[in-house]
Amino acid sequence: DAGVIQSPRHEVTEMGQEVTLRCKPISGHNSLFWYRQTMMRGLELLIYFNNNVPIDDSGMPEDRFSAKMPNASFSTLKIQPSEPRDSAVYFCASSLIIGLAILGAYEQYFGPGTRLTVT
Amino acid sequence: SQQGEEDPQALSIQEGENATMNCSYKTSINNLQWYRQNSGRGLVHLILIRSNEREKHSGRLRVTLDTSKKSSSLLITASRAADTASYFCATDGNAGNNRKLIWGLGTSLAVNP
Known about the structure:
Number of helices of chain A: 0
Strand content of chain A: over 45%
Number of strands of chain A: 11
Helix content of chain A: under 10%
Low-confidence stretches of chain A: none
Shape of chain B: globular
Number of strands of chain B: 11
Order of helices and strands of chain B: EEEEEEEEEEE
Distance between the termini of chain B: 36 Å
Strand content of chain B: over 45%
Structural class of chain A: mainly beta
Largest sheet of chain B: 6 strands, mixed
Low-confidence stretches of chain B: none
Largest sheet of chain A: 7 strands, mixed
Radius of gyration of chain B: 14 Å
Helix content of chain B: under 10%
Oligomer: heterodimer
Mean pLDDT of chain B: 90
Mean pLDDT of chain A: 92
Structural class of chain B: mainly beta
């Protein structure tokens, strides 16, 4: 299995530009998570999908951020317009969550991350 | 918001020594997980311990959970230079159908050869 695939691995852009991050989860997984990691705030959950449906987007910073999951094998996180404070490493993770009885008892598989620098 | 708080924030030891990291959390949980992150890489799952378990082992890893104190510890025995990484605890939100994990800020471990 190739694991979670993210692209690009590095992105440098100017303030005001649109940024699109891409993620391909592990085949067969039904849940996908977008995280942002910075030194100051640690690992923050932005949004997560279950069966392609957004379940919790309370971590999305503001309207400049949007995420989609058009099918089980692809998701995007878009920032428009980007700002310097968006600079961070963005991780995508996927998981197979089965049923309601096993609350939270699943492991997440992380991609290598996208290092975003907004100048 | 981050529920888990790991301590220490940073730990430096010599190869062969044991490393102990702690995690405290605020609300009740169903389970707690530990992950490792090597520099520049994604997080990798190490071990999961359920709320009705007190101790769990996996190779050189030993995890304990004290739900009365809302804390967990991760012990790495006979550490190796390759164990150098950041270690994070994560708890389930225990919030109905919401399956998101709540993450700590991590402990940075340096194992010196």
